[in-house]
Structure formats: C-alpha cells, structure tokens
Design a protein that fits this description.
This protein has 100 residues and is of the alpha+beta class. The chain is built from 2 helices and 5 strands.
Length: 100
C-alpha cells in the first residue's frame, strides 16, 4: 500500500557558524550533506544579520539561484532543504539544467 501523503525527497545543506580566530573573522560554512558538492562554501559572517548564520547562508544561496524550500535545526547546525539535485557546484546551474 502506497502512503497517501509521501514525504518529498530533499537535499540538505548544513550551515554552521564559526567565531573569529586570531587570523580570520567570523565565518559561515555551508556543506552539502548529500555529497554531490565536495567543496564547502565559506562566507564572511555579516553582522547585519544579527545572530543568524542561517539567514547569511540563505541570502548567499538564493543569490546563486538555489530554491530553498524548508529550514530545520539540529543542536549544532542549521539546515536548508531543497529539491535541487543536479548541481555539483555552488553557483547558478548551467543553462541546459536551468531549462529542465
């Protein structure tokens, strides 16, 4: 029997805040938990966003063309969830992919 309300298949992007060190300012790391993008995306933390690394990450991802559908939290990180699986880099997808 098939479920009446199946859960969507989503890709999780993990967002973590890293405080300043002696050599670097505060940063936000975005990591693809699916493993399709092997290189983490590091962003400078913009203090205009208050205490929200998730909002820094959301702004950066959406400016790169990501369609984020849901957010979630773990004790250690925030998550952004998307239906996009074709991307293998953080930037805007290739034109032939965007048209699909």
């Amino acid at each position: 029997m098939e479920p009446t309300n199946p859960l969507p298949i989503l890709r999780a992007l993990e967002v973590r805040f890293y405080g300043p060190t002696d050599t670097k300012g505060s940063r936000v790391r975005i990591r693809d938990l699916r493993g399709l993008i092997l290189r983490d995306l590091w962003l400078s933390y913009d203090h205009a966003h208050g205490n929200s690394a998730a909002s820094v990450a959301r702004e950066a991802l959406e400016s790169r063309g990501w369609a984020l559908e849901y957010g979630a939290e773990t004790p250690d990180a925030d998550l952004w969830l998307t239906r996009e699986f074709r991307r293998d880099e953080w930037g805007v997808p290739a034109p032939q992919e965007a048209a699909r």
